[in-house]
Amino acid sequence: MLVFKDKVVVITGGTGSLGKVLTRRLLATVSNQPRKVIVFSRDEAKQHYMRLDYQQAGPVTDEVIYRNFERILEFRIGDVRNYHSVCSVLNGADIVINAAALKQVPSCEYFPFEAVQTNIIGAENIVRAIREHKFPIETVVGVSTDKACKPVNVMGMTKAIQERIFINANLTIPSTRLLCVRYGNVLASRGSVIPLFHDQIKNGGPVTITTADMTRFLLPLQRAVDTIIAAIETGRPGDTYVPLVPAARILDLAKVLIEDRDIEIVIKGIRPGEKVHEILVSDEEAWHTYQRGDYYVIKPLLPELAAAEPGLTPLSREYSSRDSLMTVEEVKTLLERYRLMIGQGGIQEGELLG
To answer: Is the pTM of this model over 0.70?
Structure first.
C-alpha cells in the first residue's frame, strides 16, 4: 500500500533510535516515498549529526535519497511541550508519528512532572493543534509502551493517559484517524539493556541485572517500525497495535552476551518503578483484542469507536513476557540474526536486517 507516497510525514522525537530507523525506512522505497519527512525534536546536536549522516552517506542507500535529502528530509527544532511549536510543525502535515517521550523508568520516577509534560501534555498539544486549527491531517500514531498496560510507574501512567488522549480524539476530530502502537523492550535502542551489557562486558564486568526472574519481550527496531507502518496501512480509528514478539529472561540474555568470558553477573535488585514481567495486553483488554496478521489489535473501550472483528475470537488471557520464553540457544540465534555484534564492543543504531 502506497500510504506514504507524496505525503508530508512529521516524526516527533525523530532523532531517537526509533525515529532514525523509521526515517531511513520511509526514504528507502522510492515507489512509496513521502514528499517530505520532517524530523522534529529539541536536540540540535542530534539533528546536526543525523543531517551529517545523510550528507556523507555512501552508496549503501539509494543515491536519489541523499542527492535530494535537503528537499525530502527537513529538520525542525521544537518541543512537543510547546503548543505553538507543535502548531508550526503540524501545519501542512499529512501523517504524524509521535515518538517523542521521556521513557527511562527511573528518570520518570524522580521527575514525574517532566514525564507528564512530554508524554501527556505533548500528546494533548498535537490533538489540540489539529482541532483548533482544523489541520487536514490524515493519521496520527502515538508510540506507546508495555508499561502503559497495568501501569505501576510514572512512565507507564503517563503513556497510558497518552493512549487515551489519542484514542478519545477520534470523537472530537473525526476527520483525522488517531491510533496507537504499543510494544516492549526495543533491541539496541538508546538506553536499553543490550548496549548497557556490551559496555559492562567491554570494561570487564560485572554485568548487572535486577532480578533473576525478570523477563522482557525482545523487539528489533525494524519490527517496531513495521508495527507503525502496519497500523497506518490497516488500522481503524482508536486501534492499538501490539506486535507478536518473542520474550526471554534477562539473565539468559546476559549469559548469551557474555559467552565464555570470565565475567561475573551481579543481581542489584529492582529499580524504582520497574516491573518483573512485561504485559502488552491485560486481562481486562483481552476480551476486545483480536489477532490481525502478525499483531494483536486492542479495540478502543469507548463504545462509539469499538467494533468487534467479525468471525474472529478475542483473546482469552493477558499477553505477558513470562508466558512463552525462548531458550538460551533461541536468544543467541535471535541476536545473531539481527547482527547485534555479540561481544564485539557495542551496537550501532539501526544495525539490523531490513
So the answer is: yes
